[in-house]
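Deliverable D5.2: sample structural annotation.
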Amino acid sequence: MDRLPLPLEGITVVAVEQAVAAPFATRQLADLGARVIKVERVDGGDFARAYDTAARGLASHFVWCNRGKESIAVDLKDPRGADVVRRLVADADVFVQNLAHGAAARLGLDAATLCAAHPRLVAVDISGYGASGPYADRRAYDMLVQCEAGLVSVTGTPEQPVKAGIPAADIAAAMYAFSGVLAALVRRGTTGRGGPVEVSMLEALAEWLGHPLHHTIHGGTPPQRTGLAHAVIAPYDAYPTADGARVLVSVQNDREWRRLAERVLGRPELGADPAFATNAARVANRARTDELVGRALGGLGAEEALARLAAAGIACARLRDLTELAEHPQLAARERWREVGSPVGPLRALLPPITLPGGDGARMGDVPALGQHTEALLRAVGMTDAESAALRRDGVVA
């Protein structure tokens, strides 16, 4: 049987994007076969290019979010530069932007304007707080939105709130922009019309706060910060082992507790002890519960502890750092690592988590240099060599 093509083959995306939210969204589209044209500033490009030099001289954020794209460097404040982008958009299926509030509208590149001119276009506006309301004009960096959305209030220890170790607000907005584009393209397939898509970082992350939010507004009290523990389940935490590792244990119901007590703790009577027999009792007696589990696992090496827990049917995991993640045996066994090209040579990268068996593999293209595709794209929109040279001479493109 013939292999299926990637689902977004033939789709062209133009993105005026920076940082993480929009670039991560459009990278998903590129991995699934879309042609993504990344519009960058002439004076340094996407500012995420300068976040660090950890990826063999390139910025780790940029490498992560921008493979498989074509880069054109354009000064959008010059009318000639804005005209270049409008010409690219005229032939595109999707436009994505995450400029500061009001900037796209001033350039005529907001979703409403573009969709009025191009009815089949799907145009995405990604913002921090939305297009209206008292927060619309506020700067919306990831940490700020994590705080405004309440994520920081439920992350950390009882003594200290902390932000998530990943840009959770950016990623949430990116994934809703990605799924919004897919939904709009499906609708276009039946109606012939594209339309605007709006995503805000605050609203995306607020949705992800669904469990603690509903616990608070319906139950009356917010969940407490509990570090690696769970606010309403016990035992559910990381426990040290004899070899210095830490093993996570998650008991989800009373049947599992009875198996844990008998087969791992060696104390079958705890399965029926009123102080531990129900989850509510174990939460009320969390310190004693954790002491029992910790004592048992503390006498075992990590591998033995994990083996006993797995044999008893108890959910468990090893607490790994990022170096260990890069060498995770499951990722290796499933052959999830690839190499992608870049201006500094091949770099390791994970396959995207969406797998489409029976079809072409994800298109994991190169990480582009700034303006690497400027000349080719100018020719594609009808610019002559002389016109291109004039734009480059005047600093309108790079």
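Annotation notes: The mean pLDDT is 96. The chain is about 40% helix and 15% strand.
The annotation will be released with the project's public dataset once the embargo ends.
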